[in-house]
Design brief:
The complex is a heterotetramer, with two copies of chain A (about 110 residues) and two copies of chain B (about 400 residues).
Chain A lengths: L5 E5 L5 E2 L14 E5 L2 E11 L11 E7 L5 E6 L9 E11 L4 E9 L2
Parallel strand pairs in A: 6-8
Antiparallel strand pairs in A: 1-2, 1-3, 4-5, 4-7, 5-6, 7-8
Chain B lengths: L3 E8 L9 H15 L12 E5 L12 H8 L6 E6 L4 H14 L5 E8 L6 H9 L14 H16 L3 H15 L13 H5 L4 H4 L2 E3 L2 E2 L9 E9 L11 E10 L14 H14 L8 E3 L5 H10 L8 H7 L15 H5 L3 H17 L12 E8 L4 E8 L14
Helix pairs in contact in B: 1-2, 3-13, 6-10, 6-11
The complex binds zinc ion (2 copies).
Chain lengths: ~110, ~400, ~400, ~110
């Protein structure tokens, strides 16, 4: 049960990664520290998908890519039906997939107030 | 380095196969061997077999597909390798066969790509295809190829003024081309007005992943395609003049799509194409016909730009002008493309080369591009994180390097 | 043809990984790159990456493993291919990397093999491995690799007088070797008497597939191994003297084992070894150390004969004499072999070459074969229907062919 | 429900195959006709297996390879506990694996009287 999503900060050069890399994209370093990836960001693009893969019992899910103020971009599910390019969203963490005996946590982006 | 050419092509009718995976591959393989005038069975002259399939294991519960193929075709003790690079598995197999011959390790190779997908439900197939996405940052969210394509399409439309009608025009063009290709899966042409502007358009052409509609997405198809490759110096031993593989370029990009610096770029397409042009000594202006990976029609437009065939942001204008139709300036996806011919994952990269070989041989019938001499294929793995560009030509050096032929 | 050498090796501790597949592969990869003195990250100097895994899709639900590996290691835009040849996937990847460099298409390649098997139950793993058997004539019957090995062992014992004790002696020898290999999965030596002649022997060493007992069969292991290959002409740019790949041979046999003309022959091993010797210009008598594919210990004996290291039907006599121990005439499986080091399918073929490279470099510590100059590996796909033999050497021509180095 | 197992006879040269091949092992032909593969044969080798794959609810199964008088060899399950190299067996066809909604038929070799 991972109820937090992280960025991975290179301990050598400070470059941030999401998702985790084995080797730093900037300096080739291999040590990282976890940094909570939270807060508000901007919706870069989105879609509403009607043909879902196995395991989802819903008619559709909306997905989006969000850019955080630290420059990182991450994909996630959208928790709101109001969808517009460039809108402000707030990154929450919730169950994005129900597994057998184990649920998967990830970003669910909500409209920022 | 030895030069390598194509001397045989084979292709099953894409659609629903109704036979086991290895049998389906075999139909394409023997057609290619017949086309190359090579005997099957003893004294067959095939040194090595490459099989390209993504779902042999997960969907068909069979591993070591190439070894099984060698046995059923009675090509033992030929070498055999199974290759997987998602929807670009086919081009990877062609590339590896190219290297095998160029290295001198063998003189001839049989490349067979295929996928048997219609044995599982639609949502299982969608899930299976999604296993090439990033496991934590994409797959676990329920993200799929259509989801990524939808998000990419929205940005591309916003940035370059591409319209939903432009997308539908690509689809209609490719369906028109497929009418002249007997092995294409879909043999009907949708009416542009009915799928875009008609009041019932959203009913016959509903959304799959907004803004993508059904007609912007390729179907799920079974099928196989095959090639016989040989060292060019042995080209005169085969009935048909070899079509030479002039250049191959390959490049990788970030696994998680969100990480890419410019969301509307397909960097791996650009780098792969640049490498292929450099190796071939052929410029984009010299390309006469191209097969681009239109699993989603937006990709045909974006790839036509990244591959240098049209200026950045103007691929859709070329579609509007009719440049990319057979008869136009630079016909794209004369086979019908993935959109109308179908997209059996492992087959696609091989199928593209089959089509271009037929074009360069002048065997493409009602979809022939007159006088085609140079051709390009782009095969797109993952959502563009592993891309291969291949350039074929009828031209070549007068004399080929010798590599101690064994055939 | 350009010559190819090994300049870097990496290897995880085989056993239970506890990390995702691509992360496990990464540990081996960076160890190999460090060993080769190659930087990871920008300016890395790796042109192409080959990943060998059989169950990435079926067991780990991930496709395009090589593309994922390139990204996480920050080797973009290097080319990437995923290769599957069952338990011989590793040797296939080495072979393809060899061809890539020999062809001149690239100068350096990273080969990583690995398997993450201990994430599924034992019967799921057994079923997964069985998917490489013939679908109708074997797999659907519930036949498995141990079943085929049991039937093969019975015939071999009957024909050549091999005893259950001979089999156990191979196992004990390989476990002894593994005690000197820190990356081996099993770090204990069974007592020969206790597992064969003691009255409780059948309790601590029960049957798996008669006449095979638990100690005749390799364990189920996770693990990864990696190599950096380069063109020999660039060998002096790396800190350690390259070990040259002198010969590679590959051959296929019938898919259904029952079809083979002589049930006790491993024809593909014989043909693959013959080809490798011919290419290397090295004879079986010149081999100083070998890694043979002992997924079942009978295979070590049979392969040692088919590869010409001992006369037909006398492999078990060599075991009795102690010839195949470290310190003996021709040490076999100094790493511990699949039996004691473990057998993560896709890793095994790469792991064999890692061990032999260490032997030829003199880096094998307590298991070092003194003065070893030539080495052979046999990697066995399916139940011997696709086999690769590889010969390494410290010797070589004085001068290497030039291929327009780009590094 | 395939309650019969076949050999595949090359229509060009008559060579028999089991299992089916796409190309004749002897002449390269590609046309085959099905011939019932039945009768008695000799047990070439056998094993009793205790670690069964998923889907078998038995402590062990015995398997064998049998040579038919026409020279063909085939693997199958053993329907008898009396197992000896060279023994005469009779090829019966039965369910060798229970699938979901579909059973798989194959050889079950019995001791010949
Ligand atoms: Zn850094
Ligand atoms: Zn025949």
């Amino acid at each position: 049960m991972q109820a937090e999503i992280y960025a991975y900060k290179c301990t050598a050069c400070g470059h941030l990664h999401h998702p985790a890399h084995f080797v730093c994209v900037k300096c080739g370093g291999r040590e990282f520290e976890q940094v909570a990836l939270t807060g508000e960001g901007t919706l870069v693009t989105y879609t509403r998908v009607y043909n879902l893969p196995e395991g989802y019992m819903k008619p559709f899910i909306a997905f989006g890519i969000v850019e955080f103020p630290n420059g990182l971009r991450a994909a996630g599910q959208m928790g709101t039906d109001e969808l517009q390019l460039g809108m402000r969203v707030r990154a929450e963490v919730g169950v994005v997939k129900e597994g057998v005996g184990k649920d998967f946590y990830g970003f669910i982006f909500q409209k920022a107030e | 380095m030895r030069q390598v050419g194509i001397v045989g092509v084979g292709h099953t009718k894409f659609g629903k196969a109704g036979v086991p995976l290895v049998e389906m591959l075999s139909y394409a393989a023997v057609e290619a061997m017949d086309d190359a005038g090579i005997k099957t069975g003893k004294g067959h002259g095939i040194d090595q077999v490459f099989a390209a399939t993504m779902g042999g294991g997960m969907i068909n519960r069979q591993h070591g597909v190439a070894s099984a193929l060698v046995d059923t075709l009675n090509l033992r003790p030929a070498m055999a390798e199974s290759v997987e690079n998602g929807p670009a598995s086919g081009a990877s197999a062609v590339k590896l066969a190219y290297m095998a011959i160029a290295s001198g390790m063998c003189d001839t190779a049989l490349v067979v790509g295929g996928e048997l997908m219609r044995v599982v439900s639609g949502w299982e197939a969608t899930d299976f295809v999604a296993t090439m996405l990033h496991p934590e940052a994409e797959y676990n969210y329920g993200l799929t190829l259509p989801a990524l394509a939808g998000m990419f399409t929205r940005l591309y439309m916003e940035k370059y003024g591409v319209t939903e009608k432009d997308l539908a025009m690509v689809a209609v063009k490719n369906h028109e081309h497929a009418m002249h290709n007997p092995v294409a899966h879909i043999q009907l042409v949708p009416d542009l007005y009915s799928i875009t502007e008609d009041e019932d358009a959203i009913i016959i052409n509903p959304h799959v992943a907004e803004p993508l509609h059904v007609y912007d997405v390729c179907p799920v198809s079974d099928g196989a395609a095959a090639l016989v490759l040989c060292a060019m110096e042995a080209g005169d031993r085969f009935p048909k003049k070899p079509v030479r593989i002039a250049g191959i370029g390959q490049a990788t990009d970030t696994h998680a799509v969100a990480e890419r610096a410019v969301s509307t770029d397909l960097l791996a397409v650009r780098l792969a194409a640049e490498k292929a042009y450099a190796m071939a000594g052929i410029s984009p202006r010299e390309i006469d016909v191209a097969e681009l990976h239109d699993a989603f029609v937006i990709l045909e437009i974006a790839e036509s730009e990244e591959a240098g065939l049209f200026p950045r942001g103007e691929g859709h204008l070329a579609v509007r002008r009719g440049d990319t139709k057979v008869g136009g300036k630079l016909p794209i996806n004369t086979s019908g493309g993935l959109k109308a011919k179908g997209h059996p994952l492992g087959a696609t990269g091989v199928s593209q080369i089959v089509e271009l070989t037929r074009q360069l041989r002048g065997e493409a019938g009602g979809r022939q591009v007159a006088g085609a001499k140079n051709a390009m294929a782009v095969n797109f793995g993952g959502f563009g994180n592993n891309v291969i560009a291949t350039i074929l030509t009828t031209g070549g050096p007068e004399k080929y390097a010798s590599g101690n032929l064994r055939i």
